[in-house]
Automatic annotation (TrEMBL):
It comes from Dactylosporangium salmoneum. Pfam families: His_Phos_1. This is Histidine phosphatase family protein. Transmembrane segments: none annotated. It comes from the Bacteria.
Length: 199
């Protein structure tokens, strides 16, 4: 059975400051670099056969930590980027609460946001699903695919792959930096959630 590991990037300075990143291209902090280097050997123990990554620097750099210990080639795919948060990007949560109180409150509840240029949930889920399905379809049946990506993007992809209503996405909880969600695809039963927030 195929194992798909959705691996969130290491910490950035913006993560530490509770600043909204979205598709703003921020680098890993020193803490984030250490997190990536610490988690790469644990992922190596899963015997990965395919490595794909978002092309944003924080995810690409995280993926390179696994390249360094595995020798696997990495394929960068912009469809694995984080959800775009439009005008919110660069603002702290406190600032966004002050400037967009109603829509930011909806986001915090896991609801759709229809202003400030925030990308629709369905758009994120569709592009993530397409990229991941393409990787799975191009791999061997028992492949172990690691996708270095982002927190919200990974959550929506998980829900889409499992066939759950998107309203259940918040119940997964936030994926922590350099933690992962494991999904396994059974030939008969389809995708199954094996683990979430694995260190």
């Amino acid at each position: 059975m195929t194992l798909l590991v959705l691996w969130r990037h290491g910490q950035t300075e913006w993560n530490a400051a509770h600043r909204i990143q979205g598709q703003t291209d921020t680098p890993l902090s020193a803490v984030g670099m250490a997190q990536a280097m610490e988690s790469a050997p644990r992922l190596l123990a899963l015997k990965p056969t395919v490595l794909i990554a978002s092309d944003l620097t924080r995810a690409a750099t995280t993926a390179r930590a696994l390249v360094d210990v595995s020798g696997l080639p990495v394929t960068y795919d912009p469809r694995l980027r984080e959800r775009s948060f439009g005008e919110w990007e660069g603002h702290t949560h406190a600032e966004a609460t002050e400037r967009w109180p109603e829509s930011f409150a909806r986001w915090r509840r896991g609801e759709e946001v229809d202003d400030a240029g925030v990308e629709e949930i369905d758009s994120v889920a569709k592009r993530m699903h397409a990229a991941l399905q393409e990787a799975v379809d191009g791999a061997e049946p028992d492949a172990v695919i690691v996708a270095a990506t982002h927190g919200a993007a990974a959550r929506f992809a998980t829900v889409r792959l499992l066939g759950w209503p998107m309203a259940l996405a918040p119940t997964l909880g936030a994926l922590r930096n350099c933690h992962a969600t494991h999904l396994r695809r059974d030939p008969l039963r389809g995708w199954m959630l094996e683990a979430h927030n694995v260190a």
